[in-house]
Design a protein that fits this description.
Chain A is mainly alpha-helical and about 220 residues long. In chain A, about 85% of the residues lie in helices and about 0% in strands. Chain A is globular. Chain B is about 30% helix and about 25% strand. Classes of the chains: A mainly alpha (about 220), B alpha/beta (about 210).
Chain lengths: ~220, ~210
């Protein structure tokens, strides 16, 4: 019961802090929409091009937007030792990592379900692809959250080279991008197989991420 | 009872803690002293199992804390050198979080009287980012009363406090000892607490 109370308390705290700093999140979504507009302005009104590469643009901007939220994962709690406090309250670093991932997914990824349709409209992508785009984003966003969590925990002691965190996300996201983007142009009989591959990647990351993050946090505390 | 035997810790090829032993029983208080970089904070983090021991053992009531750290944590309050109150939340919200996190049995009336004692009652709905360092430190120290644990591990608890707050902390520490608690703390300030045991860290200390 005590552990359950601690988990609820931590989730509640994360929600309050994220809500108070909502402008940070808003800037992530603005970045995504402005990025799409820049593509529209630079390529022009050629709808055929956007129909072919639009989904790629959306995924690229989603990935870049996620890079902006990277430092939201553990950095503040690591710097002021709150992460130690959570641990002493009885929560393992694995559980802490899982809670952070859930909160990040709800606040950073979930609102994209509202913003992606805007992006689809701006890029004039065929609306019949909506279902596939949403499904691939549902799976892909979970994978990206896991990858961002790994990257955030790996860079806790890195106060100089912020680009490394983004590089880790980009490299690990390559399979997600390949399988998500190609879903649009696949014949119906191959879609199920490709979604199964994406689901496989998602479950793989969900299984390993808490352990990797916990190990990275422990290692960072050891060297702090 | 807390027992630490032959603790050794090395970081970046530098010996920080070298063969330190100590014991802490009910009604006892240890004051860790030493020059800057002597390893006082590191020793506290090792005692609380935040940092992993490289050599030596630590026992709580006869059980190795490494084997079951969460049983040990049920008895420990650790006040660290940094304040853990979140700057985006108010005093009340931080206290609410700590009470839930540690399943504290303190009721609202008790919390109000703690805040009144700390002269923080008029700031209950103020964001932490607007508080002075001393006020944040006092709020952090309120965790000692909220958590109600037996072993208090304090890293520089007197930092940023005015004289009346220092007296209040001394009184609280004394009271905790009288009730059978145990305390280990680091400070460059020597508080007026009777029966205090000093452990000077010079990388070869024993107590």
């Amino acid at each position: 019961m005590h552990t359950f109370n601690s988990i609820i308390a931590l989730i509640n705290r994360e929600f309050k802090i994220t809500y108070r700093n909502f402008s940070d999140i808003l800037s992530i979504f603005l970045f995504f929409l402005l990025g799409i507009m820049i593509f529209v302005f630079s390529v022009g009104g050629n709808t055929k091009i956007f129909n072919e590469i639009g989904i790629g643009i959306i995924w690229t901007l989603l990935l870049l937007s996620n890079n902006l939220s990277l430092r939201k994962f553990y950095q503040d709690d690591f710097n002021d030792n709150s992460i130690i406090l959570f641990h002493i309250s009885g929560l393992s670093y694995e559980i802490i990592s899982l809670i952070k991932m859930i909160v990040n997914w709800i606040f950073i990824q979930l609102p994209f379900f509202i913003i992606i349709p805007l992006g689809v409209l701006l890029l004039n992508i065929d609306i019949s692809n909506f279902q596939i785009i949403f499904l691939s984003f549902l799976i892909g966003s979970t994978i990206i959250t896991c990858i961002a969590s790994i990257s955030g925990s790996m860079n806790l002691l890195n106060n100089k080279n912020f680009a490394i965190g983004s590089l880790i996300i980009m490299i690990l996201s390559i399979p997600v991008i390949i399988f998500s983007v190609s879903l649009i142009n696949l014949a119906d009989e191959f879609i199920k197989a490709q979604i199964s591959i994406l689901l496989g990647i998602m479950f793989f990351f969900l299984a390993i991420t808490p352990w990797i993050c916990a190990a990275c946090i422990k290692l960072a505390l050891q060297s702090k | 009872m807390l027992l630490a035997n032959n603790i050794y810790f090395k970081r970046n090829n530098r010996k920080i803690i070298n063969n330190v032993s100590l014991s802490l029983s009910d009604h006892k208080i240890i004051h860790l002293t030493g020059n800057n970089g002597a390893g006082k904070t590191t020793l506290l983090k090792i005692i609380t199992n935040v940092l992993e021991l490289q050599k030596g053992e630590i026992y709580w009531n006869g059980k190795n804390i490494k084997k079951n750290p969460f049983d040990f944590y049920k008895n420990v309050t650790f006040i660290m050198d940094h304040n853990t109150s979140n700057k985006s939340l108010t005093i009340n919200e931080n206290i609410f979080f700590w009470r839930k996190l540690f399943s504290s049995k303190r009721n609202n009336k008790e919390i109000d009287s703690i805040l009144e004692l700390l002269s923080l009652n008029h700031l209950q709905n103020t964001l932490i980012s607007y508080l002075s360092y001393g006020e944040k430190r006092k709020l952090e120290l309120s965790r000692l009363i909220i958590e109600q644990k037996k072993l208090w591990v304090l890293d520089e608890p007197y930092n940023g406090l005015d004289q009346s707050s220092i007296n209040l902390v001394n009184h609280t520490l004394l009271n905790h000892m009288k009730l059978g608690g145990m305390i280990i703390f680091t400070s460059h300030f020597s508080p007026e607490i009777p029966n205090i045991e000093n452990l000077y860290l010079d990388n070869h200390a024993h107590l």
